[in-house]
Amino acid sequence: MDVDGVMTRGGIILGSRGFEMKIFDVQDGMGVTLARMGGLKTGIITGRQSDVVRRRAEELRMDVIVQGRPDKLPAFEDILDKHRLQQDQVAYIGDDLLDRNLLIRAGLAVAPANARPEIRRAAHYITRSSGGCGAVREVVEMILKFQNTWKRVVNQVYMHSLDKGSGT
User: Fold this and answer.
1) Are the beta carbons of 43 and 1 closer than 8 angstroms?
2) How far apart are CA 143 and CA 11, in angstroms?
3) N or C: where does the chain have the smaller number of CB atoms within 10 Å of the terminal CB?
4) Could you report how far apart the first and last alpha carbons of the chain are, in Å?
5) Burial of 100 (C-beta count, 10 Å sphere; 0-12/13-18/19+)
6) What is the mean pLDDT of the chain?
7) Distance CA 3, CA 92 (A)
8) Coil, helix or strand at residue 13
């Protein structure tokens, strides 16, 4: 997936001395965790380089973190080779022009509701949620339900929270 406009609403706060802030949606973060629990690999390919993005991807234990690659196609092809995947085994979520080449190659091309028109036209599915507002979570739930693993993953979450004493 892309980051800005997908995992975030697309805003970037830049301050002096390289200070950067982004707001990530916690339900999208839970979506990435649920994906991992359901056996899916997750990752990002982004044109920008950001310590904030690296930190968030590491917190979520994403399998792939590729930054600073505005031409995302070579990175996508490297990921396919490294993980021995075919294009049709990949879902990609993107919102802007730099994502189009990946969307037209992915087996499941997804655009958040607020994606650019060219990107929505290239997508197989357009989320009800906007980027940074639950779009990632929506896609993960859809995939896990389609694969008939959603109930198992939800039960794992319930059992884990009971084991930790937070059963409310």
Assistant:
1) yes
2) 27
3) C
4) 32
5) buried
6) 94
7) 11
8) strand
Which of 11, 73, 7 has its CA nearest to residue 43? 7
Residue 163 pLDDT > 80, yes or no?
Answer: no
Amino acid code (one letter) for 78? D
Tokens (6 digits) for 88: 């049709």
Domains of the chain plus CATH, in order, are 13-163 (3.40.50.1000)
Residue 18 in tokens: 């390289």
- On the question of pLDDT at 162 being above 90, the answer is no
Structure tokens belonging to residue 39: 């056996």
Query: For residue 70, how many other CB atoms are within 10 A of its CB?
Result: 8
Contact 32, 140 (CB under 8 A): yes
